[in-house]
Amino acid sequence: MKLKFLPMFAGVITTAAIASTTLAAFAQAPPASAPQTRPRIVLSQEQQAQFDGIKKNTVSEIEAILNAQQKAQFAEGRKTGEGLGAVQNLSDPQKTKIMGILQAFNSQIGDILTAEQKQQIEQSQQSQSRQTSPSSQPKP
To answer: What is the residue-level pLDDT of the chain in tens, covering all 140 positions?
Structure first.
């Protein structure tokens, strides 16, 4: 069973901050008032500490390839939930590097999850893909 973590992050470049990516969203506690749209996995304290370190390193790696203006946009985007989608004028080499960083992030997060947690994510992905597939859309 191979998880497809990369598709979860494909939209990260344009729509979400690392902190709001699917794995990150699974791993972080939702605000008390937030409606839950997908199941959350519960991380142990050790996993949470590892996750926080991985996330911090990933953000630092991304910031290292951004110029000053892009860093400011990224910081603001992380506050608003827009994440990398707030960053304008990314060059193709920057996009490629960011995708590589996010692939490494996926791999590192996958390494800290248990088999059961990975299964929960896979089930959620399958459910999500069924909900968004054209065959699941009502026909007129």
So the answer is: 444 444 443 333 333 333 334 444 444 444 444 444 556 788 999 999 999 999 999 999 999 999 999 999 999 999 999 989 999 999 999 999 999 999 999 999 999 999 999 898 888 888 877 777 665 455 55
Q: Where are the domains of the chain?
A: 12-28+40-118
Residue for token pair 């996009």: 95
**Taken in order 43, 29, 51, 128, is the CA torsion positive or negative?**
positive
Q: Is residue 122 within 8 Å of 3, Cβ to Cβ?
A: yes
C-alpha closest to that of 23 among 35, 33, 11, 34: 11
Q: Are 63 and 35 in contact (CB under 8 A)?
A: no
Amino acid at 70: Q
Token readout for 43 is 């991380």
**What is the C-alpha separation between 43 and 64, in angstroms, rounded?**
28
What is the rounded distance in angstroms from the CA atom of residue 70 to the CA atom of residue 75? 8
